[in-house]
Amino acid sequence: MSTKLPLYLVDDDEAILDSLGFMLGQFGYQVQTFNSGRNFLAQCPLTQAGCVILDSRMPEITGQEVQQKLLETQSPLGVIFLTGHGDLPMALSAFRKGACDFFQKPVSGKALVQAIEKAHRESQANFEQQSLQHKFAQLTEREQQVLTHVIQGMTNKQISEAMYLSLRTIEVHRAKIMKKLEVSNMAELVQHLAHLNTLLPE
Asked: Which residues belong to any copy of the Response regulatory domain (predicted)?
């Protein structure tokens, strides 16, 4: 289970926060509770991986408005709705905006835990992709070209010939690429960047 990732509960009903927080804590989750969407948005690190369980009807800011804010900030947080006032249009809207699941209260612990695990997996993948894109954006155009050749399996000598650059220059570029992408060797680089083809120049 992904109990190391944070789990946020947002509901204006303190009894729900207490009971649900206690139950999920028994599963080993690091649960943080918020009694309003405003407090959640103000205090939660929205750029990190994790999962938020939202009530839909809350004063000041609704669960739907919280989800919209997360979309606007490109937060990697996985979203699960748990509401006593849900309907089909509301659920469809939530899913269209990327919600991982939508439950009516009450919900079984097993179903909720399964949804949290799914949300955590998707959130971690989104976070890693965003982090990789941020690191990739720091590469110069020449470094991106070198990286493209590296992922294609070309040796330094082959890259130097293809780009009409000295072998030493290619070695320097590779060292800078590894530093910026925070990898220690080329095997790790290729393993982490195998899915980066959409970002690389043709």
From this structure: 6-120
